[in-house]
Design a protein that fits this description.
single chain; globular
Length: about 240
């Protein structure tokens, strides 16, 4: 039993840096990003949409239309060619934080899209019970063979779309200030061909919502400064929006 609780404690110490309720409770002890409502866009939404579209199209073309099982290295080669940089999971520089996301090739310039936060979208606001099983179930539910509605590869860590790793980005600390920030964006689905949706990071929990949706809500991580190779990405979960 002692060994079990030691394992639980170890897991918590790693996960807490990405656990929103814990971060919210510690808000008063941390710095936060303060913005006015009209300023809460680091880049235009069209820049996010364009990056995702062109990168997805390049992945689709270079991975034989997505039907051939390629190693993640193939997707990273496409990423470096199209975006000029790559990001990958490595051991975090924060002691006890587990894995993090690092720039592994190239230089990320301020305003670049470095990741998306994948998962299930609950339009009713409920976020309890979000899990790998639910996401996988929703993807298979809305599958219209041979067209997948979202990317399943982030569940395994063998990323077909290397950008879908945002859930591994750790929160900033006093020693490691943020170099990326979250930005929400609505992707018009009529601008995203059905064959490219297999690279999308999100799916609606409700099948009826997905079937009638005009937009898909995305959460992008955008660089707020230039980031050089071998640098870990750090976000800030504390965004205070002033009307």
């Amino acid at each position: 039993m002692k060994g079990f609780w030691h394992l639980v404690k170890k897991k918590w110490l790693s996960y807490r840096f990405r656990f929103v309720p814990w971060i919210a409770l510690n808000l008063k002890e941390k710095g936060h990003r303060s913005v006015r409502k009209v300023d809460d866009k680091i880049v235009p939404d069209d820049a996010i949409i364009s990056t995702l579209f062109h990168f997805s199209a390049s992945l689709h073309e270079n991975l034989n239309n997505g039907f051939v099982n390629k190693k993640p290295i193939e997707s990273l080669k496409v990423m470096e060619k199209v975006l000029g940089y790559t990001v990958q999971l490595k051991q975090s520089t924060i002691p006890g934080a587990g894995v993090g996301v690092f720039v592994t090739q190239g230089i990320v310039t301020a305003g670049s899209i470095v990741a998306f936060y994948p998962g299930t979208i609950y339009r009713d606001g409920k976020d309890s019970g979000i899990s790998r099983m639910i996401f996988k179930s929703c993807v298979h539910r809305d599958l219209r063979w041979p067209f997948f509605p979202a990317d399943l590869s982030w569940l395994t860590g063998d990323f077909i779309n290397p950008l879908n790793c945002g859930q591994y980005v750790n929160n900033e600390t006093p020693d490691f200030p943020c170099n990326v920030a979250y930005q929400e964006c609505d992707l018009p689905l009529d601008r995203f061909p059905i064959e490219l949706r297999r690279y999308l990071p999100n799916i609606y929990y409700s099948s009826s919502e997905w079937n009638r949706a005009d937009f898909l809500r995305l959460v992008a991580l955008v660089a707020v400064k230039d980031i050089v190779v071998d640098t870990e990405l750090f976000s800030t979960y504390y965004t205070v929006v002033h009307a």
